[in-house]
Specification:
Elements (H helix, E strand, L loop, with lengths): L1 H23 L3 E5 L4 E5 H50 L7
Antiparallel strand pairs: 1-2
């Protein structure tokens, strides 16, 4: 219950800050997107840039985690093979060299 309340409080605070930011930065800016030019509000442009950066960071972190999980799976398989080889070698009788 407290966790949900804290989450709602953070979301409400974020919305309040976004509203204050939009109110303090009125006006339009022109964005040249190479193939077209658009005019958008300053707050919207910054919000979209922030969201795109957040998504890029999330994607980068996900790729690192997937790579780490794949390496962990490969190492676990290698460990299983090595343990079975050691178990097989321990079960073999010792042979003298001479």
């Amino acid at each position: 219950m407290a966790r949900n309340l804290l989450f709602l409080l953070v979301v409400f605070l974020g919305l309040l800050l976004a509203t204050a930011f939009a109110a303090l930065n009125p006006g339009l800016i022109g964005l040249d997107l190479a193939f077209t030019e658009v005019e958008v509000q300053k707050s919207l442009a910054l919000t979209v840039a922030f969201g795109a950066g957040w998504l890029f960071g999330l994607l980068s972190a996900a790729l690192v985690l997937l790579k780490s999980a794949n390496e962990r799976r490969r190492l676990r398989k290698s460990l299983t093979l090595a343990e079975s080889e050691v178990k097989t070698l321990r079960a073999m009788p010792i042979q003298d060299a001479g």
